From TrEMBL:
<dbReference type="InterPro" id="IPR036398">
    <property type="entry name" value="CA_dom_sf"/>
</dbReference>
<protein>
    <submittedName>
        <fullName>Carbonic anhydrase-related protein 10-like isoform X1</fullName>
    </submittedName>
</protein>
<dbReference type="GO" id="GO:0006730">
    <property type="term" value="P:one-carbon metabolic process"/>
</dbReference>
<dbReference type="InterPro" id="IPR001148">
    <property type="entry name" value="CA_dom"/>
</dbReference>
<dbReference type="InterPro" id="IPR023561">
    <property type="entry name" value="Carbonic_anhydrase_a-class"/>
</dbReference>
<dbReference type="GO" id="GO:0004089">
    <property type="term" value="F:carbonate dehydratase activity"/>
</dbReference>
<comment type="similarity">
    <text>Belongs to the alpha-carbonic anhydrase family.</text>
</comment>
<dbReference type="GO" id="GO:0008270">
    <property type="term" value="F:zinc ion binding"/>
</dbReference>
<feature type="domain" description="Alpha-carbonic anhydrase">
    <location>
        <begin position="54"/>
        <end position="316"/>
    </location>
</feature>
<dbReference type="InterPro" id="IPR041878">
    <property type="entry name" value="Alpha_CARP_X/XI"/>
</dbReference>
<dbReference type="Pfam" id="PF00194">
    <property type="entry name" value="Carb_anhydrase"/>
</dbReference>
Amino acid sequence: MSRVGPEFPTSSSPNSLLGQKMRPPLVAARMRLPLVAVVALLAFIPESLTSWEEWWTYDGISGPSFWGLINPQWGLCSKGRRQSPVNIEAEKLLFDPRLRPLHVDKHMISGSLHNTGQSLVLRVNQDSKHHVNISGGPLDYRYQLQEGYIHYGNTDGQGSEHRVNGYQFPAEIQLYGFNAELYHNMSEAQHKSQGIVAISLMLQIRDKPNPELHVLTSSFGQVAYRGQSAPFRHLSVRALLPDTNHYMTYEGSTTHPGCWETTVWIILNKPIYITRQELYALRKLMQGSPETPKAPLGNNARPLQPLHHRTVRTNIDFFREQGKNCPKMYKDHYYRANPWSEDNRSQGRNSGDMP
Ligand SMILES: *[C@@H]1O[C@H](CO)[C@@H](O)[C@H](O)[C@H]1NC(C)=O
Ligand SMILES: *[C@@H]1O[C@H](CO)[C@@H](O)[C@H](O)[C@H]1NC(C)=O
């Protein structure tokens, strides 16, 4: 398969995200229902369903187009202009020389996997003394890893929420942490400034199993239905990360309700690998209970959101690596501050300029 579309410089390594073989984005057929239908349906929600947290889906009349309508607290899902996921366009990336390497603590964690009926969610035990710290990169604070979401497709051609030049990976693992220097936990931090970091790992299919990912995939059979959970132990999140210091970063939102616009996204520039067997086990998970299994849990990706005026920055120095002329934040021109004396001040006043 040859590359389609314009060719972009890749980072030094051949299997990085930028430089992936591209294919046209899939246009998912989505159901659009008039607002009347939602209102009519809201009237029929059983009173026992007290928690909004449980009543949303990835399709139909409780799907992404309606998240902002079904719960007034989730207004950002429909009105927000700094939403996620987005399509990363290689040609619009801006190299930022101030971006540092990302730091993630390497020690083992324990926690549990949950089938919530919407996603497969990984919850990290918070009681342990040794929290996994996430810092560096574009971050100004230390964040504490709290949870992860697994988004995947029921077929290979879809799955990930973020895309790279339109390419959708078969799956994406998103690791969320909260700002532990300013806030106590995720539920407090998600509403607040600089509250959340999300690290995105793209998954690609390969025969060779990834031992770290296996800690999670070996429990898939125990979370086949909504409400089921399974503990895991001895997972090193650092060891799960792909072998690269390169990433793309932008300011966005959680990709699930309430679409909080307090999230710094970091998308690592190499995929990690999942086997066909593991993906098959994942695709057997269901949205419902054993009695009413409903549909498979997969295809749980929120549609792409417009970037609007946001910039996606990268620490990949295309210019240095390829000798090509890409947009960059290195300065070619500099401002100069004039000495500030009584003389200058009167001159400035005359000319109407500051320096
Ligand atoms: C994470 O950061 C906190 C605060 O600096 C520290 O007490 C803790 O030991 C760190 N965790 C690890 C695993 O280094
Ligand atoms: C999160 O922290 C806030 C503020 O300390 C507290 O009121 C709330 O109960 C905590 N929530 C959870 C789920 O721990």
